[in-house]
Amino acid sequence: MNGDLFEADPRDPGSPEIELVGSEDTSLVDAAVATLRRLGVNHGHVAIQIVELARIHALNLEYRAMDSPTDVLSFPMDGEAIAYGQLPDPESGPFELGDVVICPEHTEDMVEAVVHGVLHLCGLDHETDDGEMLALQDGIVASLYDGSAGA
Fold first, then answer.
1. What gap in Å lies between CA 5 and CA 2, rounded to an integer?
2. Distance of CA 126 to CAs 24, 27, 64, 69, Å?
3. 13, 25, 90, 140 — which has fewest CB within 10 A?
């Protein structure tokens, strides 16, 4: 994607890497890292791309057959999210989780959109679970806003 690459902990080569394209808002990187850490994902790569309304509309139509814009889309690497709770072994080297695409014009809270997209990349799905994903999302977002995400 050719954006800015951020490491959760530059001293730790096994920490998550977040690539941010189309924005300089590092709170989005913090949101992705906090979400990954909450799920126990301590390595891997996620790309976050900020796009305009026409682009997210086209992507939503192409990949979800929905002829409307949306706030956030997740594109797991190889088309399939990792199985929730079954993360790749860090010893096997870096791995790609996938991409999160966000449209600010259609999003009320960019931090929440990042958290939502990363949760999808990690195998959670609010359309099929019993509310667990959205509850986890609310908790992560709240911790980011109250400053306890790193705790």
1. 8
2. 29, 24, 16, 19
3. 13
